[in-house]
Structures are given as C-alpha cells and as structure tokens.
Amino acid sequence: MKFIVAFFIFLGVVMAGDIKYLEVKGVKIPVITEMDKNVSFGVIGLHFSGGGRAYDGNLPISNASAFLLSRGTKKLGNIDFNKALDAKAVELDVGTGRTTLVYSLKFLKQYEDFSINMLGDLLKDPNLSKNALNDTISYMKANLASSKSDFDYQASQLLNETAFKGTPLAKDALGNLASIDKLNLKDIKNYLDSNVVLSRLVITAGGDLDSKTLEHLKKILEALPVGSTIEIPHYEFTITDAEKKALKDDTAIKTFKGVQQASIAFGAPLVGIDLKKDAYKARVASLILGAGGFGSRILETVRVKAGLAYSAYIGFDMGRVLSWAVGGMNTDLGANATKAIDLVKQTVQNFVDKGVSEQELDDAKKFLIGSEPLRNETIEQRLSKKYMAYFNGLPLNQNELDLEKVKTLTLPEINDFIKKHVELKNLVFALVTSPETKNAPSK
What we know:
The chain is of the alpha+beta class. Helix content is 44%, strand content 20%. It has helices at residues 2-11, 61-69, 77-87, 112-124, 130-147, 151-163, 177-181, 185-195, 211-221, 241-246, 279-291, 297-305, 335-354, 358-371, 379-391, 398-407, 411-420; strands at 13-16, 19-24, 27-35, 41-49, 91-96, 100-108, 201-207, 251-255, 262-269, 309-318, 323-331, 428-433.
C-alpha cells in the first residue's frame, strides 16, 4: 500500500476526497475514476471546457472542429489513422456539447498502450489539412440539408431561438450555409490551441486501468500547453409578456413544405433549483409530469385520454449552464395542434396548482428505485454520472444520495416543492407546420 501511494505521488497524482488530481506542468488536472478489474477494457475521456457551442461566436466552429478531429492525424491521414484503430477495435471519437469538447477513447486492455499513443498523436498532430477541411464542410452541409426535413429538430431549434434569444443557445449548432463556407483552418487551429489545454481539462477513466495508465496519460498530456481557464456561462429562459403576445400569444410558428404532422416543442423556466437540495424532488416531479412515458400526466392526458398526439413528454433539464422544463409532441396538422397545446397548458397548470397524488408519488418512487440498476449497468454510465456531478459542483456520489432521499420523500414535501414553481405555467411553444396551416393555432 505504501508503494502505491508513493508511486502516485511520484506521478503527481494527489488524492482529495473522491477526486484524484494528475499534476502536469504544474497544473492539477481532476481525474474521475470508475475502476473495475473484472472487465477486459478501458475507457478514457478528456473533457475540455470552452470547447462547446456556447463559445462558437459567428461560426459553428466547435461542431466543425469535432468532425475534423475524426479525420485522423496529419501524418497518417484519415484512412490510415482510422484503419489502424479499426484493426485493434479501438474506438476514438470526438464530440462537443454546450460548453465542452470531449475526446472519448475505448480499448481492449491488451491494446492500452497503442490506444493511448493514438490519442496522444491526435492531440499533437490533428489533420489540419485542406482535404480534411473540405470533407468537414461537405459533411456539415449534408447535415444541415438533412436537418431541414427533421421537423422535430426544427421545432426544438425554433424553441431555442425563442426562449434563449440573444444568447449562443439560440443559434443552430449546425450553422448555416454562409457560416459553414467561412470555416477555415486558421480559425479551427486557434480554437484547438485555445481549448485543448491543460488548464481546461478534466479526465474520466474507467475499466481495467491502473497507475500505469495514469503514467502513460501524463506523458502524452505533457505535449499540451498550459493555457488558461475559462468561465462556464449560465443562461436563463427569459421571455416577456409582450414577446409572448407577439408570438401569437405564446406560440412561435414556422412552416416547411412536406410536413405531414405538426411537430411541437415547448418549454418553461425552472427557477431557484438548488441541485444539492432539490434535484431529487425535481426528478420525481419531472417523472410524474411528463418524463415517465406512459403513466405520466402529459402523455396520459394528451395522447391516451384525448387522442390528440402520437407522442408527448416534458422533462426538467437542470444544471450549471441552464435550468428549464422542456418537452415536445407530434400531432395532426390544423385544429388538433391547437387543442393539444391548450391541453398541455391545462395539464401543467393543474400540476402546479394541485400537486400530485399519493399513488403518483408511490409509483414514481418505485420506478426510480427499481430501474436504477439499468441506469448504472455500464462503466460509461457510471462515469458520466460522476462527471456531471463534478461539473455541477456536487459530490461524485450525488446520484446515490438523491436516491436515498427519494425513498423517504413525503407527499407534503413534493407538493410543496411543485407549488412553489409557478413559473412552470409560463410555457412557450414552437410549432412547425405546413404552409397550408401556417395560421394555426388560432386563438
């Protein structure tokens, strides 16, 4: 045991509660782990803050950079790099979220050294070539064209434009033709130089890994600059009564040719949620209102009883970056869209005003407790929960702590929580419909 501790100190790995810190060039990088010697693989994630679409500016630079990074290294190129990975069943992907650029690596234990070396090569020598850029631009234009016929996506994007007007979240992460054409290697290089730095890094590591893995990671990370930290933004769902009135009271409408059924996205503010104290109550409330599928208020009311929609849901999206209730449904064109929207409003109003029943609470508790093992089956699932807890400033075992609180949650407690959140009644809708029904919903 003494040898292991001494070895970790030699590596610059500092233990602090549930978090390890790997020291590289004087930077203490948080390391979140989920080790398991019973599996024959490893997973590693490099999470760089500042790499998400919240920082894009006028170009879809994060999305473009993530795709370009999938084109391998400049030395090997796209085909040879990815052939080498495929030959050893190594998965190396790059993606972005609202605020983060993530390199995800998964490998068989026997190919650990090879896999980490390939990750290091991609960090040091991304394929910043004209061919890779052209592939990226073509791919992004194809994605953009495809999104035009994805009407659920269009409704969701219209809702974001309405609810988060004036913020980066209002912009389409796919960009537009003009912004895609403006992408260039210099801007992508500047993006990577700014974000792929030690000061913005959090590591997740799981599976059959050990101190040797961290030693190897330390070596490849020494190639990165220290860089600077960046603030994580927070956005509020804000829309005035006057703005709602201008939206045909509360509904933004967009028309597309070829729409066969109305796609509707809707959202409401969710204010004052203390993630450490209230998240478990919000989770139960969300499940009962609309996140639980059949048996939840929204689906039972709009689809099962009224037959107005093919699908309907609403859930609470809570975290460091934003906190809101967001949902969606699909219904017939024309009058049914109006009726479905009105019924969602009534359902949410009754939910806030009257709370839930003892039976609803009991059913929600049984579901959450009984289905928890399914949400923790994989190492990736467990690592993701720990990372999100860390990102939101919570203990890594916050999910387990919340589940224990769910077991003892009482009806007065959940209803007191629900009735305080009157802002949920301030729903805004985004309706994608056909040009022939562009005046729907009528008021």
